[in-house]
Amino acid sequence: MDAMAEIRQTFFEECAEQLAELEAGLLAIENGEADSDTVNAVFRAVHSIKGGAGAFCLDDLVHFAHVFETTLDEMRSGRLDSSEKVVKIMLRSADALADLVTVARDGGTADAERNAGLIDELKGLVALAKGEEPPAPTAAAGGGASDGPVYDDGMGDIDFTPVAVDLSDLMGIGGDNKFRIVFKPSPRMYAKANEANRVLRDVYALGEAKVSCNTSEVPHLTAIDPEGAYLTFTIELSTAEPEEKVREVFEFVEFDCDLSIEAIHDAPDGDIEADDPDIAEILARIRATPDDEPTPAKTDEAEEEAPVAAKANQPEPEPEQAKAAPQPAKPAAPSAPAAAKADAAGDGKGGAGVGGAAQTIRVDLERVDRLIDLVGELVIHQVMLSQRAYQAGLARASDVAVGFDELEQLTREIQDSVMAIRAQPVKSVFQRLPRLVREVADISGKQVRLVTEGEWTEVDKTVIERLADPLTHMIRNAIDHGLEKPEDRLAAGKAEEGVVRVAAMHRSGRIVIEISDDGAGINRKRVKEIAIKKGLVPAEANLSDEETDNLIFLPGFSTADKISSLSGRGVGMDVVKRSIQALGGRVSIASRPGKGSTFTMSLPLTLAVLDGMIVSVGDQTVVVPLTAIIETLQPKASEVKSFGGDARLVQVRDTFMPLVDVARELGYSHELASATGGVAILVEAENGARSALLVDGIQGQRQVVIKSLEANYGRVPGIAAATILGDGRVALILDVDAVVATSRVEGNFFNSGMKHAAE
To answer: Domain 609-758 is of which CATH architecture?
Structure first.
């Protein structure tokens, strides 16, 4: 990949972050949190996207972002209120901006008519803030053709006659307040799409200014870093504005430059001019042989680690400005890829940024996956070495054995640290939900309030990426099928506004996500009637409430009377179940008629490692996930009760629970194993039901590396994944819930109906 392609890729990665920040900020404003910090964060997000897009000549993106940014500036200045109507326009504009970024990255065409209409709406908001008449719609908004982006400020295409103007009228007026400003940009400033010439232009607008440029740090031509920053600007400003207004000019660059602003009493007056050094003199000096003159040292060591991001965006720099705005420095290691460039948070001057903000680094996900795989192999070989050492007769108290124990502890710490790299909060998924809820509520004509909890609950990045689709289906289902119409809620004595709650939490080494609503609950009678009518279950099936609720996960099942944009095709909840199962998770339902329903998704925290108990089943070795195990015991003959042929119960204290013969369920044996000759492992399913798994014996407990059986071989009922043991053998990881559920429904009408539906 060439350098420009790396920069472009990094730009789009940063666009994704800026778009997420933009939407989060707009949603916060919608919820009444329109404080200055939130509005400024939203403004900066759009400004950064516009600046980066300018470097790649993405004209449509730049134009739309410019109009959007102008509107946000009116809100930032307090002239535009953050009303519901205004925020809705901005949220739709954020969607359009995201679409333009996608088109710029992947190709294709944007919806020009929609974008032109949004531009007109944004310009109308600007006119409203200024107390002016809204501009006439553009040609594209009215359905006409457009010859390309027109960079105006809101008044559309206007015929005019050019006239001569006196540019001095555009300059600022001097005043009694005089300041001396020393402004030295760093590479970070240009990496964030800010430009020195724009900053200086804003200073000019404050009053009379005299600018000089210090070029003493410019090295010989052969030693110049094209992404370095070597110029220092000294500005003597005479203005009527206070110091706060002067500092506002540098608001977006103050942490990415060396800045000094001091009030002076004898500042020289004079016409506005820039004392640029003689270009010929500079060129002659930097071309001189540098043998007798060392290259000036960098004053900011953190410049070595500045992020590449979007290069300094100067579409058409003037000669002196081209030198005033060089690109940021490359990382010290020349072989480091763009994906691993430092993405410094805060001021980036080594260590934590302003307010103690931690620094971060952007790394290609494939590299992290490769590292995790290697650590997994390290764990396998560490276990293998330890096992062979003990088999060789080394005493556990020997120095070698102690060394292996220390190696095991160190390996575990390395593995935990590497896994933590992939851990991310589910907030990235949750922050997409408010928009979804609002859109579905508008389509269905319902009033809905979304409540989220546990946004900072961390889970593996791979799990997060695959949560979006199941959550989307379940939220749509909760609003469309769960919540009643406002008039129906009022008639039932409920609030007109329905509530959908999404909560994430850690439980028993897994992440649990609950989606609940306060709607009417599941109409079990109607669900069963529809299932029988569609041939999904036999008419004579005797189903429990739990089994009836689970009918909605069958392919082709739908309670909608007609097909709509939200539902009716019988595709959705079965997709949810398959998606969750593909992640090694489970989904369950709890519903109370008239009170609402709760869908619970239980997922592994990571798809890479697992704490398990190694057990013998027949002549095979199986791993039982430790998170599902409550206790182990050896049943006595008096505690085992038989009923219904081969079914058995085991008494544990005052409770009877099913005894599941694992070897028989997995097909390792066709004979019923002796209950008193093995070990019973008490497990708890996700729905809270308890069972006892009968195995031949327990070998031990250890952490194993998960290998996908489905990806490398195929899906096996009752098996979640596989792993490699210390002796090199492959062991299967048991899907406890699947084995327990199969044993519970085997042979009844419901199971027959499920098999019929699968066929």
So the answer is: Roll (2.30)
Q: Which residues contact 576 (CB under 8 A, 6 or more apart)?
A: 469, 470, 473, 474, 553, 587
At 237-272, the pLDDT tens digits run 888 888 888 888 887 787 888 888 888 865 444 444
Which residue has better confidence, 289 or 712? 712
The reported pTM is: 0.54
Ranges assigned E (strand) in 618-716: 620-625, 629-633, 640-643, 647-652, 655-661, 679-684, 690-695, 697-705
Tokens 């506004």 — which residue?
497
Provide the 3-class DSSP secondary structure of residue 222.
helix
Whole-angstrom distance, CA of residue 310 vs CA of residue 193: 6
Write the burial class of residue 638 (CB in 10 Å: 0-12 exposed, 13-18 middle, 19+ buried).
Answer: exposed
Domains 3-130 and 426-604 in one fold: no
CA distance 501 to 448: 10
Give pLDDT tens digits for 738-748: 788 776 655 34
- In tens, the pLDDT along 227-239 reads 788 889 999 888 8
| pLDDT reading at 673 higher than 90 | no
β partners of residue 398: none
Where on the phi/psi map is residue 594: left (φ > 0), alpha (ψ -120 to 50), or beta?
left
In contact, 84 and 438? CB cutoff 8 Å: no
Q: What is the CATH code for 426-604? A: 3.30.565.10
Burial 611-634 (b: 16+ CB within 10 A, else e): ebbbbbbbebbbbbbebbbeebee
As a 3-state breakdown, the chain gives helix, strand, coil percent values, each rounded to 5, of 40, 20, 35
- The amino acid sitting at 71 is T
Q: Could you state, in order of their start, the residue ranges of all structural domains in the chain?
A: 3-130, 169-356, 365-424, 426-604, 609-758
Residue 192 is classified by DSSP as: B
Report the alpha-carbon distance of residue 501 to residue 437 in Å, rounded.
Answer: 11
Helices (H), 392-497: 399-422, 427-430, 433-444, 461-465, 468-477, 486-491
**289 vs 287: CA distance, rounded Å:** 7
CA 729, CA 623: separation in Å to the nearest integer? Answer: 12
Give the mean model confidence (pLDDT) for residues 174-194. Answer: 82
User: Over 60: is that where the pLDDT of 397 sits?
Assistant: yes
In this prediction, residue 1 carries a pLDDT of 52
Report how far residue 254's alpha carbon sits from residue 705's, in angstroms, rounded to the nearest whole number: 48
- What share of the chain has pLDDT > 70, as a percent? 76
Query: In 3-state terms, what secondary structure has residue 651?
Result: strand
Nearest by Cα to 385 from 377, 699, 698, 626: 377
Mean pLDDT, the chain, whole residue set? 75
Number of Cβ atoms within 10 Å of the Cβ of 468? 15
pLDDT per position as a tens digit, 269-321: 444 444 445 555 655 555 554 544 444 444 443 333 333 333 334 444 444 43
Strand partners, 591: 597
Q: What is the DSSP string of 158-169?
A: ---------GGG
Does the pLDDT of residue 705 top 50, yes or no? yes
Return the H-helix or E-strand segment holding 381: helix 365-391
The residues facing 25 across adjacent strands are none
pLDDT at position 693: 92
Per-residue CA distances from 257 to 77, 192, 299, 695 (Å) = 25, 12, 12, 67
CATH number of 3-130: 1.20.120.160
Residue 20 to residue 421: CA distance in whole angstroms: 21
